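Re: the request from the purification team.
They wanted to know what the chain is likely to look like in 3D before they choose a buffer screen. I agreed to run a prediction and write the result into the notebook, where they can find it.
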Amino acid sequence: MDRALAELVRATGAHIGIVYLLVPEDQLVHMVAVTGLPRNVARPWSRVALAAPVPVAEAVREGRSVWLASHTELAHRFPRTALALPYHVAMSVVPLTTGAVRWGTLLQIWPGTHAPELSSGEARLTERYRRRISRLLRRAADDGRPMRPTDLRIVDPPPTRHEQPGAELTERFPEGTCALDLEGRITFLNGKAAELLGGSRHDLLGARPWDVLPWLDDPIRRNFYLAALLSRLPTSFTALRPPDHRLAFTLYPDATGISVRITPAGTPSDDRAPFLTPPATGQARPGALYHLLHLSTALTEAAGVKDVAEAVTDQIMPVVSAQGLAVLAADEGRVRVISSRGFPQRVPDAFEGLPLTARSASTRAIATGLPAFYANTEELRRTYPHIELYRIMDAFAYLPLFAYGRTIGCCVLGYDQPHPFSPDERAGLTSLIGVISQALERARLFDTENQVARGLQAALLPHDLPRIPGLEVAARYLPADRGLDIGGDFYDLIRLDDTTAAAVIGDVQGHNVNAAALMGQVRTAVHTHASAGASPGEILARTNRLLMDLNSTLFTSCLYAHLDLRHHRACLSSAGHLPPVLRRPDGRTEVLDIPTGLLLGIEPEAEYRTTEVPLPPGSALALYTDGLVETPGTDLDTAVNELAARLAAAEPRPLDALAESLVRQAGQTRRSSRSRDDIALLLVKRDD
């Protein structure tokens, strides 16, 4: 198999070849053989979850080939992979199968300059060796020696050379030259290179530059080595050798290693290609990784579109050193501005409502789905002379946002000076935008569901509570801070006749549309049975049987209080709900100890007992959900007793003001403790 892998990449011209083996019992694909990469570089990609949205997993999972002609296409289809592999490469992944049996995948990588499609010869060779390696894996299994994912094997590694012929020739050059093997070790350097690097040949030969030269030891510098190694394309960077020697490094890779040219920064070089002079952007600053890590965290925590937009503007602008950033969405044939920072206000005003058919760089990026980079605005001003934006700033990047195979918007970066975009920077930006696109689309779906859920909840909660002579009432609801802005908490006040009423509060498990819908069904059922004259315990029992008939997977707590104003009493029944708090006319409070039945929706034959308590004039009942009292790390009984103490200490005032105070205090506690639950509160008071 190793020989077949080496033959394949030599025949197709690929510079990297990898065999992954399927491990069904672990739901993994495991790298077992690689050619063209050192072990330390390949190892981070050696184990891939079968369910992961990455090319090697998709090929074996779906049993079909994956061809990615460019990094842009990789970012469109596999944004996570593009972010982890921000290099100019083309790749082919084919499944290794015999009949219906899946063995793994075969991966090949070419430089990003490869043609948009595999040639007929490359496709024919890939298929031939795919079958050959698959047959070898099947034969080993049939012989009772199936291949196992043991240690990663490096196939046909080039020999390590610490001196090379022709060394005397390079000594005549006015610049430093050195060579690295695929592991990054220095195998040769001339005297000028040692002088520029500030070290001796003895110390440098056989060592990795970043191991012996502290000023080269940072992830950004090492990333240029990885970019050259993985893409097999030249790249360059500058670095400051203390105290004040700025050096320019140009890396030229091939299948055996990397040749490096070292010159003092600013030295002219006639044969350097233009793209080899990258701009001094934020990508080369140590803080870049900090911001990118924070971006990943922020996008993970972001719920709605506004959260995603804030995360992007806060974390991306420092990384790319852009002075302006706008996130645009395509919505019903027009451009909508999600966020804008750094641009004058007239710029987002001009974007807002722009028809997608209008002529502009942003609408073109949305229409084509292709990123566009303008190092200066000469072409933009010439092509779109009517657009003022291109006279405000001097360089732009237009990065299409996409999800589920369609373009959903565009991210616009603006620079106040000409800004040449290096290939590495373009690849990095394209990778970032792929991840941002997924987060934005997820956030748009969240906002849509949230809007539907809030509308549903608003329709299900009572808009106004009935006025009942002799009874003062106040109610409050505070939605959850995180997740969907909706919960299953509910309350109700039911007028039964001139002297009786019912107060109800409950909490359906969950914070989503299903919880809101079930909450509406529970509230309707309680209202119906109460109006029919059923007792508190029977009302809960009938509602419980309804939930069992609905076969819901959500449980519900509920507290029902029948208020008899003529006889100054209340009859209460509870289905797993928190106990009510009674405030007596003299201001003393009591947490009522009433029997607590099972939650609704658990046991069809559950029974609920009723407890009668006196309700003299001037007394009040507090019914509430756990969001009002519960905080992480606090015992629930203690929290309920603290609520009773707050009610006892409250100054005489209207119930509305008391309810507002209790909910405001609970909201502050919730924010400080990062609690996510919603809050419902119902206060009823027998008039004096």
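For the purification team: Confidence is low (pLDDT under 50) at residues 267-290.
Please add any questions underneath this entry.
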